[in-house]
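Please review this pair:
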Amino acid sequence: MRGSHLLVICLLLMSQSNLERERRSEYAHDGRSVLSFLDREFWDPEGGGFYSNPYGKLVKLCHEQSMVAIAHFSMYNVTGEKRCLDRGEAIMDHLAVYHAPGGGCQRVAGDPGPFHIDEQSLVIRAYLHAFRNTGNEKYREAYLDLIDFVISNLTMIPGDVGDVRSWFNPGNGNWSGGESPVDYFEPSMTLFQAYKLEGNQTYLDAGKRILATSRKFWDENNYGYSHAMGDHLRYSRDHVTAALAYLSAYDVTNRKDYLQRATDILFYMVSRMGDQVSQTFYEAISRDGDVNEPPRKLTVDHLLLVQAYFYAHRVTLEDKYLKQGRSLLDFLLERGFDKSVGSFTDQVGGGVMGDLEVQAQGSITLVSAYGILTVGPSPVIAIVVITVLVALVVFIGVLFRRSWPY
């Protein structure tokens, strides 16, 4: 009887573990497929770098180069594949041509236009990833310079005010104050990551001030972040980026109020911004909860939400976040991903091929799924452990019977 029970347990363990391993491998395979698709279709073999969309106007944007670099470094970090490291460094070599003589990273190479704070933040994160994965000091020097540029030119100096400039034009000195919540969430997230790597208190303090000031976009009466001051629309992108920023803050400070804020934002999205039938999320709703026309469900919003769920799982170890993230990711792979070419669509359940940002975030999300999904011990190890435990139980039972006086 014990033998049959042991066999059933072992078979169940082997089956479950193999299913998890297979699913984890699929995430890695799909992530590689996206990167290969970008190399085939979006990469410029002559000038280097990736086009935003090779089938339209041929433009290369600094923040999109950064996202693809992060995807390659992330893949290298969890798989150790040298070709991903090489491609990541090749992208960083191309990104160097965007650097402006006076500091900052130009939106388009050679374009003396304004610097946008959200784009600069993404470029800094690419250099953080590059340094973490290579140890090359040139990357560290680059992100230190860029952080100094952002703090000096794209935040409101002096004092403890956490306001930011949405953009700044060094050519004529013109600038505009933070125009949307993302202008606050992206730099605060970047500064928290820089603090985690550097331990520089200035970065942590600046990130906390900026994040605190973002509360001016929160509607205390109707809840949700306004897309702009006085704007009644609430965008999924604003909210999921907010959740990521607050999770980053909790990650480096361990302050429970940051974690609570992140979970409150995720709850708001689920309860107010989601389509309860398909468990997907609208691009935007009104203050009263009406869906903005046209009722789009952007793939990139959902990919970022998956990343937020995985981040929440990593810092809390609560399985509910892992389950929510995996469920949403599997739905996206079913309804917004073409496995035959390795390409995400721009909208969930339809639309056209996504641009470079969508594909890059898709690969980053798949790599996150591969890295966070645990598959447990080897089935062979599990069988050996259970066999030993059963043998010990039987042995103790025999000894007990022999020692029992009645």
Notes: Residues 60 and 74 are 21 Å apart (CA to CA).
